[in-house]
TrEMBL record:
Residues 21-340 form the Adenosine deaminase domain. Its EC number is 3.5.4.4. It comes from the Bacteria. Belongs to the metallo-dependent hydrolases superfamily. Adenosine and AMP deaminases family. Signal peptide: none annotated. This is Adenosine deaminase. One of its GO terms (molecular function) is deaminase activity. It comes from Nocardioides iriomotensis.
């Protein structure tokens, strides 16, 4: 048995992955701000963060989780006005579109923007303006997930569900819960999730990233989770694995993020192989890509290495994300058809 490798077997596979039409369902708004985007924001708000691209690339060189938090908060501090929100959203869409991402469910945290002084109405206008422009100019469809920053507890949860119920843009489809898991138990958010779900929003909390399988059970039982953000610790509980397989509940797996946050010690020890072999519904995502020094394309390369996938296997994995998405059936069929068409054209050329 060969050691799993983090690199794809061939340059050809990397080329295939780069051109592959993709969807992404676990990616954060602020966490997707690249050095290029931050340079633009920093130029708008001179002072705390360098606007020189080389200096920013150095600032972004991933060191450890504490450094990630430092970068994240520095970016949060640059998002002060509706125009900052619009710019960030459109430019994040541009970087996804450049990787052939056709559809993304992007997690927004309106609570922190409102805290920074952007009124919720202006926040909604800014992201919607960027969404419409991105669809028109970049050919990428965006939908929103509002997430509760768990570290702010119930007041943030109440505020976030209020924004979701009273100021929701049409393109809001999901309701999530992020931030730390330790000390932030899931059941306390039961009522808030019930209200969001009653309004038609889909439940997509993070769970089992930095805590054990019980948090995943809690997310399923108390928050009505339809997908699990990360779910890394699921493999520690055979009964949970069985449940996830039986009900085909998708896990939003983000390999590099799990290493960066030390949820998993190394890529070689990542449980994705175990999940995949057990029949768990696995999807590949990038979480906070530039801050963890990755891209969605790179995450597929890593997954291909860890799961020993060829082009057809990678296409299947990409189709999983489409199936796990909240696109309507015709949208799913269209994107899945684009993926299978791309694979067929590739195999034809290889012949
Ligand atoms: Zn996340």
């Amino acid at each position: 048995m060969s050691e799993p490798s983090a690199r794809p077997e061939s340059d050809d596979l990397a080329t295939f992955i780069a051109g592959l039409p993709k969807a992404e369902i676990h990616v954060h708004h602020v966490g997707s701000a690249s050095p290029r985007i931050v340079a633009e924001l920093a130029a708008r708000h001179p002072g705390t963060v360098p606007s020189d691209l080389d200096a920013l690339r150095e600032f972004y060189r991933f060191r450890d989780f504490a450094h990630f938090v430092e970068v994240y908060l520095a970016v949060v501090d640059l998002i002060r006005e509706p125009e900052d929100v619009r710019l960030l959203t459109f430019e994040v869409a541009r970087e996804m579109a450049a990787q052939n991402v056709r559809y993304a469910e992007l997690t927004l945290t309106p609570y922190t923007s409102v805290l920074a002084g952007v009124p919720i109405e202006a926040f909604v206008d800014a992201v919607e303006d960027a969404r419409v422009a991105a669809e028109r100019d970049l050919g990428i469809t965006l939908r929103w997930v509002y997430d509760i920053p768990g570290e702010f507890g119930l007041p943030a949860a109440e505020a976030t569900v209020g924004y979701a119920l009273e100021h929701a843009p049409d393109s809001l489809i999901g309701f999530g819960l992020g931030g730390p898991e330790i000390g932030v138990d899931r059941p306390q958010f039961r009522d808030v999730f019930a209200r969001a779900r009653a309004a038609g929003l889909r439940s997509v909390p993070h769970a089992g990233e930095t805590t054990g399988p019980q948090t995943i059970w809690d997310a399923l039982e108390h928050l009505g989770a339809e997908r699990i953000g990360h779910g890394t610790s699921a493999v520690q509980d055979p009964r949970l694995v069985e449940h996830l397989v039986e009900h085909q509940i998708p896990l939003e797996v983000c390999p590099t993020s799990n290493i960066a946050t030390r949820a998993v010690a190394s890529l070689e020890e990542h449980p994705i192989r175990q999940m995949h072999d057990a029949g768990v519904f696995v999807t590949i995502n990038s979480d906070d890509p530039p801050m963890f020094g990755t891209t969605l394309t790179r995450e597929y390369e890593i997954a291909a290495g860890l799961l020993d996938l060829d082009e057809a296997g990678v296409a299947d994995l990409a189709t999983n994300t489409v199936r796990a998405s909240f696109l309507p059936d015709d949208g799913k069929a269209e994107l899945a058809g684009e993926i299978s068409g791309y694979l067929a054209a590739w195999q034809e050329r290889e012949r």
